[in-house]
Structure formats: structure tokens, C-alpha cells
Amino acid sequence: MLGVLLCLVLAACSAVRTPASAPSPTAGPTAAVATTGLPTPSGPITVTYWETDTDDADVLLDELTAEFLKAYPAITVQRVHYSYDDLRNEFRIQSFNGQPPELVRAPGEFAGPFSELAIVHPLDAIFSKDFLNQYLTGALAGATTQGKLWGVPDNYGNHLMLLYNKALVTEVPPNTDAWIAQLKTLTDAGAGQYGLAYPLEETYWLIPWLAGFGGWPMDAVDQPALDTVEMANALQFVYDLKATQRVVPEQADYDAAFDIFRQGKAAYIIDGMWNLEQYTGLGIDVGVAPLPVVSATGLKPAPMATGRYWFISEKASGAALDAAARFVEFMTATDAQRQWLAKMKRLPSDKEAGKSDLITADPILSGAMAQLRVARGVPPALNMACAWSGIDAHLSEVLTGARTPENAAAAMQADADACIEDMGGVEPTPTPRS
After folding, report:
1. Which residue among 166, 195, 259, 266 is buried most deeply as judged by most CB within 10 Å?
2. Phi then psi for 165, rounded to 5 degrees?
3. What mean pLDDT comes out for the span 19-40?
4. Cα angle value 210/212/217 (rounded, 5°)
5. pLDDT tens for residues 317-370?
6. CA 246 – CA 237 distance, rounded (Å)
7. Could you read off the pLDDT of 290-326 as tens digits, one per residue?
8. DSSP letter (8 states) at residue 133
């Protein structure tokens, strides 16, 4: 982001709920268990949070808030809706020059700019390890930078997974060697039939294979890690799918890959959780499974995932901080996440909610959840924007044979490093990948 918008428009009015009754804080199915280690607020306190989500999600947020208010009658909660960019910019402005809300509920990539500006609390200094252990490790990674955790998620997903046509595939092989052998039997390029279809030139689709070869686009100190053996091996793998094994179409963008699968001309497709509804009504019995283990490493491919995270303003203190932390605890609890699953079909970040019958009894959701358990949150560090740029610039060159995987990995790193140098501390706009 190269400038700050000085005038922003409030997108919706706040929603305030008054409890009809005041049961004990431990009463009711969704009352949170006190694991924050912070005292329960006892006096009149108002907690305001800003959020950016859909209208349907706002309805559920208000329903959950009403349950919280019954358990904590001393607290009043106000919700204010913003657009994605307006929330990010206005929270920054108010944090320095005004009165920010106690809480923000936003995508995990907001952890990058918020933490760089030191306008939110590090949450591993507020919540106990036992409390944080309820979340999937990969989900916490989506709001971790500078070695600290800045947000906790109430849902998690939008990740890639393997979908297949059950009329063509009776069993998904456990590893890539066996899977590729199967893909060859399912491919007849002359007839336009392929074992697999997916948008090879899209960077987001490369990430699971990078992880499967033991790499990741960012290192432990939030710097791009692209010029690596792991990246070269991942690039070689996707190149071989096209040029050596010939089990994927020569050209297929996102829409074309879906169309090939829809026509029954691909046995498998790699697609995201966000697109699952498109697979209903196709007349195809669709299965969902995790990507097979990479035979060369024994590692599971780990796609990136995103979620909605709760951030606590650095200016929240005293009783307001206690109330904000208790609200976050409640809104991310197992039972709250079960409601996101039941009403919105958003997969949980909570380990226990991931065992819900709503998931285990549904083959599609259970396959999606199995993949999500090994997914990792999109790195929120600001330098990730430069890592994306470096990969984007050279992935297609590998697939066309214009660069070797090793040469492309070095070029990706050089471009990412140059991007960081050019950025010179200027905050880029984080870009959701799905």
C-alpha cells in the first residue's frame, strides 16, 4: 500500500445486543471455558469490534454475540462492518490518531501490517499455551509473524484438495509414484482424456508440492526462501507432470480445468474449498481426498489455507482487555466453531470441532478436513507479497521449458529480494490468493 486513504466510509451500523437474562458464565452449551488466565470482568464494559465478512456471516456473529451476552451481562458488545480495505486502513488511522476498537475480526494476512505497525497485542502473551493448543497448528501459522502470534481463528479453510470422478477412480493411491502410474492409465491425450487437470501456472497450486518436497516460500525469519533444492524439486515435479508423464493438458487455466473435469475428460482435479458448490449437479459422483504423499520425501503436500482471525488492539488495557480476551475466547470456542460449520459450512480451526459428526458423516467434508489438518496458513509477513511476485514471474517459464527448475528457483529468489529492496519498508497491500 503506497498511501493512506484519509476519508473512509462506514459500511454498516453497529449491532448491540442486550441479554434477556443473566445465567452463570459457565451455563449454556456455548459458554466459553475460562482458559485465558484473565479475570472475568465484573463491571459495565463496552467492547467494540470491527469485521469484514458477508451478510450471512454477520447474522451468525450477532447470534453468537447474543449467547455471549447472556453469559456475561456486564459486557456490552458492538459490531461495526467494514469493507476489506476500509477496515485495514481505518484501523491503522484510528490506532495512531483516534480511538480504535478493542477488537478486529479480519483475514489472517492482516497480521502482517498490524504487527509491523505494533497496533495489536501479541496473543501468545495473553492466552495460555493450553488455550492455543485447541487450534490446528497450521491455522495459527496464518497469523504468526516476527515469531509471535497476533490473531486466533474462528474458522479456517479455502484450501486446495484433490477431487476425483468416482466413475473413473475407485481408489486414490497413497503416494505420488503410484498416483502418477494411475494417472497414466487414465490419460489418452489423443482423445482429450487426462488423468489430472488443474491450472499449472497458478502459483497457489505449486505450494502444496513445495511443502511436499520439504520447502515453504518463507523461512523462519519471514524472508522468501525460493532458491532452494526443495523449490527446484517441486518445479521439476510439476514440469514432469506436463512434459514427461504427460498426464495433464498442455494448457488449462482455472476455468478450463474445471470444464475438462465437468465434461468427464479428467479423472482428477485440484481445486479449492471455495469452489465445492460448483461440483454439485454435474451428474458426476465426486470424491474428495488429500493429495498423495510425495514418494521422494515421505511428506504430505500442505496447501495454504485462510481464515477469519480475531486481533486485539494494542490500546486495549485493563478491564477492556480482559473483556475483549474473554469475548475472543467465546467466539473461537469449539461450540461456536460448530455453529460456523453447521450454518455456513466453514471448516473449523478448532481440533475438537474438526471431529464433528457433520464432518465425519459427510464424505466430501471429511476429505476436505483431512487435507486441512496438514494445511498451513498463508504467511502473513509483508515480504510474502514479494515471494508471490518472484514465483509468479518464473513458474510459467519452467512449464514451457524456457528455464530449468534450478535456474527458475534462483530467478524467483532474485526477483523477491529485489522486490523487498524496492519496497524499502513501504507497506504493500496483502493479496488474498482465493
Report:
1. 266
2. -85, 110
3. 39
4. 30
5. 999 999 999 999 999 999 999 999 999 999 999 999 999 999 999 999 999 999
6. 12
7. 999 999 999 999 999 999 999 999 999 999 999 999 9
8. T
- pLDDT tens, position by position, 30-64: 333 344 455 667 779 999 999 999 999 999 999 99
Domain 160-302+382-423, second-level architecture = 3-Layer(aba) Sandwich (3.40)
Q: Name residue 156's amino acid.
A: Y
Task: Tell me how far apart the alpha carbons of residues 119 and 311 are, in angstroms, rounded to a whole number.
Answer: 10
* Domain assignments of the chain as residue spans, ordered by start: 15-157+305-377, 160-302+382-423
For residues 233-244, average pLDDT = 98
The residue type found at 308 is R
CATH number of 15-157+305-377: 3.40.190.10
Sequence-separated (6 or more) residues with CB below 8 Å from residue 402: none
**For cell 490473531, what's the residue?**
151
> What is the mean predicted confidence (pLDDT) over 417-429?
75
Q: CB neighbours of 32 closer than 8 A, spacing ≥ 6? A: 71, 326, 329, 330, 333
CA distances from 242 to 188, 201, 253, 398, 401 (A): 13, 11, 14, 11, 11
Q: Do domains 15-157+305-377 and 160-302+382-423 have the same CATH topology?
A: yes
Question: What tens digit of pLDDT does each residue of 199-219 get?
Answer: 999 999 999 999 999 999 999
Beta carbons within 8 Å of 215's beta carbon, 6+ residues apart: 225, 228, 230, 231, 233, 234
Show Cβ contacts of residue 266 under 8 Å, excluding neighbours closer than 6 positions. Answer: 165, 193, 194, 195, 196, 197, 257, 260
Q: Which of 375, 333, 380 is nearest to 154 (CA)?
A: 333
